[in-house]
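Is this the right way to post structure tokens for a design question? Let me know if I should format differently. Anyway, here goes:
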């Protein structure tokens, strides 16, 4: 019997998923080799939810995340409200990857395997506590706590080489292998049971705008729709597919054999052509991109250190794994030799053109963190730096006389390093700051002074801000103009 032709809408879906997967994979490979290519973290819409709290509190982002994450997450929310889990079925790179392994499994085993219904029903709930746990730990620690365990991050670092992959994403890599092997036996195993973004979409899909409706008069109860559904939704017995598991792939609609349609896609109760659904999905993404562009939030890569230094708005925390030693030294006005000495690195072994993240491989050492360089620069400049987690206050004192804060670029001095006179003044500005006091970006200097029962002058001095800074404006609105970051202020107020 001749193989049945694939409906055009399903060809379009596979092309869409293919483009997303290939594009994502190519970007992750290029990111390992070139500067200015977005990292997996900047491309992950879930990162928008992870950094949302920090962004709302102070207009800042969790390290490694970018404004693009908020834009992508906004697009997911809009898409989820209008078209339920359309993102999962049409645009998700990890869903596409599972689809590839699912296809290989079908070719190898000629059949799909089933999870007992009772077990399946219980396991489907697992993704919700996983979502809550990730949000809780990310928001409370303000860092990407699950990154090491993230199979998508592991996939994105396959091209970094096994030793780096294993060192940074060991658990994520094991999960990745398990998920891909599992997908060969069982469709979309990660989407069904684990995916936190799928859980977000499932929650959003409770808004009943998009639904697949079954027309009982024409349905011949052949159950074909049930058999093709990758999410194991029982379509043939319901009037309307309300399941939060439906990923709007439309496989059931295109598989239905009746001449008069028995399954139709509806939006707000009105039947829609399948192509119209696809166009709406695309339009929501394009619309989000345009809004992101208009609000200047469509940034996928962090600005270069040297550009930040030129603009006079540079901070130790801006040092990235993709920066080279030469760039770090130039941007912060440090002698390269001094930086190498502080790090205990041999310049002959590790040339100054080495990217920080390649240090371990180039130097032939087991492990080397970019944060080590941030601490070293902070120590040389004599400025505070809180570490990658942002939790521990690590105020670093100058280690040697040869390079002082005075040698840092003017911009650096403005933001973090202080001339000796100002430093002395700051030390004299001592007042009790309760341990549970949180400096928010929405607060003005007046608010802080009121909360701590001190004068605005004391707050300005403690934060090392210019005396003429407006005291009635939210601190986050002034950071660009006065060249500080909220993270720096939060550190200073605790000192
Ligand atoms: S119910 Fe239909 S549209 Fe929803 S996931 Fe299953 S096959 Fe796809
Ligand atoms: S495939 Fe169509 S006809 Fe067959 S059970 Fe599903 S809705 Fe009814």
């Amino acid at each position: 019997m001749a193989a049945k032709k694939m409906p055009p809408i399903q060809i379009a879906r596979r092309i869409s998923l293919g483009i997303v997967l290939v594009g994502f994979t190519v970007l992750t490979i290029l990111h390992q080799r070139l500067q200015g290519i977005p990292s997996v973290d900047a491309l992950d819409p879930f990162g928008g939810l992870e950094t949302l709290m920090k962004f709302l509190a102070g207009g800042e982002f969790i390290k490694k995340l970018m404004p693009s994450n908020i834009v992508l997450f906004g697009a997911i929310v809009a898409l989820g409200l209008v078209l339920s889990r359309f993102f999962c079925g049409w645009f998700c790179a990890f869903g596409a990857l599972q689809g590839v392994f699912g296809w290989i499994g079908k070719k190898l085993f000629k059949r799909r395997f089933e999870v007992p219904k009772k077990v399946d029903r219980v396991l489907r709930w697992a993704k919700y506590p996983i979502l809550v746990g990730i949000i809780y730990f990310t928001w409370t620690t303000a860092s990407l706590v699950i990154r090491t365990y993230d199979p998508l991050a592991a996939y994105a670092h396959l091209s970094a080489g096994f030793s780096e992959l294993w060192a940074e994403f060991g658990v994520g890599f094991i999960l990745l292998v398990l998920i891909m092997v599992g997908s060969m036996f069982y469709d979309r195993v990660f989407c069904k049971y684990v995916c936190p973004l799928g859980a977000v979409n499932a929650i959003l899909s409770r808004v009943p705008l998009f639904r697949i409706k079954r027309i009982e008069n024409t349905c011949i109860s052949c159950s074909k729709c049930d058999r093709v559904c990758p999410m194991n939704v029982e379509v043939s017995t319901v009037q309307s597919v309300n399941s939060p598991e439906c990923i709007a792939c439309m496989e059931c609609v295109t598989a239905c054999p009746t001449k008069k349609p028995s399954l139709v896609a509806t939006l707000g109760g009105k039947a829609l052509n399948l192509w119209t659904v696809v166009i709406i999905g695309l339009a929501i993404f394009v619309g989000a991109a345009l809004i992101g562009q208009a609000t200047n939030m469509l940034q996928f890569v962090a600005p270069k250190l040297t550009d930040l230094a030129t603009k006079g708005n540079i901070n130790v925390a801006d040092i990235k794994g993709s920066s080279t030693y030469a760039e770090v030294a130039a941007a912060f006005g440090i002698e390269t030799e001094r930086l190498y000495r502080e790090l205990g690195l041999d310049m002959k072994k590790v040339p100054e053109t080495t990217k920080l993240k390649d240090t371990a491989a180039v130097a032939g050492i087991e492990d080397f963190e970019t944060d080590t360089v941030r601490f070293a620069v902070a120590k040389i400049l004599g400025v505070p730096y809180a570490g990658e987690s942002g939790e521990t206050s690590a105020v670093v004192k100058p280690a040697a006389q040869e390079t002082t804060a005075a040698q840092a670029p003017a911009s650096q001095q403005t933001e973090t390093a202080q001339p000796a006179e100002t430093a002395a003044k700051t030390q004299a500005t001592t007042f009790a700051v309760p341990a549970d006091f949180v400096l928010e970006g929405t607060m003005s200097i007046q608010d802080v002074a009121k909360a701590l029962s001190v004068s605005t002058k004391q707050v300005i001095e403690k934060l090392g801000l210019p005396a003429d800074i407006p005291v009635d404006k939210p601190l986050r609105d002034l950071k660009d103009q006065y060249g500080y970051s909220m993270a720096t202020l939060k550190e200073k107020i605790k000192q």
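Format looks fine. Someone answered above. Worth noting: Residues 16 and 90 are 6 Å apart (CA to CA). The first strand starts at residue 210 and ends at 214.
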